[in-house]
From TrEMBL:
Classification via PANTHER family: ALIPHATIC SULFONATES IMPORT ATP-BINDING PROTEIN SSUB (PTHR42788:SF13), TAURINE IMPORT ATP-BINDING PROTEIN-RELATED (PTHR42788)
Similarity section: Belongs to the ABC transporter superfamily.
Organism: Sulfitobacter aestuarii
Domain of life: Bacteria
SMART domains: AAA (SM00382)
Annotated InterPro entries: AAA+_ATPase (IPR003593), ABC_transporter-like_ATP-bd (IPR003439), ABC_transporter-like_CS (IPR017871), ABC_transporter_ATP-bind (IPR050166), P-loop_NTPase (IPR027417)
Highest classification ranks of the organism: Bacteria, Pseudomonadati, Pseudomonadota, Alphaproteobacteria, Rhodobacterales
Keywords assigned: ATP-binding, Nucleotide-binding, Transport
ABC transporter domain: residues covered: 4-231
Pfam families assigned: ABC_tran
Protein's name according to its UniProt entry: ABC transporter ATP-binding protein
Molecular functions (GO terms): ATP binding
Amino acid sequence: MISARHLDLTFQTNDGPVHALKDVNLEIEAGDFVSFIGPSGCGKTTFLRVMADLEQPTGGEVLVNGVSPEEARRARAYGYVFQAAGLYPWRTIGGNIRLPLEIMGVPRAEQAERVRRVLELVELAGFERKFPWQLSGGMQQRASIARALSFDADILLMDEPFGALDEIVRDHLNEQLLKLWERTGKTIAFVTHSIPEAVYLSTKIVVMSPRPGRISDVIDSPLPRERPLEIRESPEFLAVAHRVREGLRAGHSDV
Ligand SMILES: Nc1ncnc2c1ncn2[C@@H]1O[C@H](COP(=O)(O)OP(=O)(O)OP(=O)(O)O)[C@@H](O)[C@H]1O
């Protein structure tokens, strides 16, 4: 579904070149839930932005759905969820979710049907006519996920969508996101700073290290797809979390 080969990205800045990504190789299969974890500045967001055609690599290549990120963007192959919900305050929740559909010229009746369906998927049925400021932070983030789902892309790119939320809300959204992934069969690329979040959600965990940003470990999760929150106390879960922590530590020691 997504393939990176010898991917390099160097930013030219006033202080000299910044090697955000160096020789990054990765294969993401259809239906995978892949988390990217690593310290600040290791290139997680940059990698996601390359997949989304928001940054141009300086070397190597990325294929999304077998085509270039630009072609994938034009074909609306992915939805993107940002760190902040980024909803327009003057539009209702329904109006925000409808926006990409309006831009795409989807007929009005179909727009209404899709808004209804994605609001149900994120458990916000009944909130269509509310304004963003009438919703909690977690609900706003769910609305922004609904917006990314509205045009039914196969891939969801999520950049630390729950980073600003408290732990209880985050736990709940993690559970909901897993259910949503299970129901829709989407391929998800998810950036996080949290080891438990990465281990809980993912089928594959990509550990990255900084300067230059590269992949230090790729872990295929042995956990079953069915994951109650309590699984986080199981020995299997703790073993994966331990390996992620070791990977992060190793990445730090050779900086
Ligand atoms: N547009 C840009 N111009 C110059 N340097 C940039 C640009 N975007 C990112 N960088 C640099 O590239 C490196 C990787 O940044 P990136 O945002 O991808 O890291 P990250 O792992 O997502 O960090 P965080 O976890 O803090 O969000 C950093 O050193 C950053 O300063």
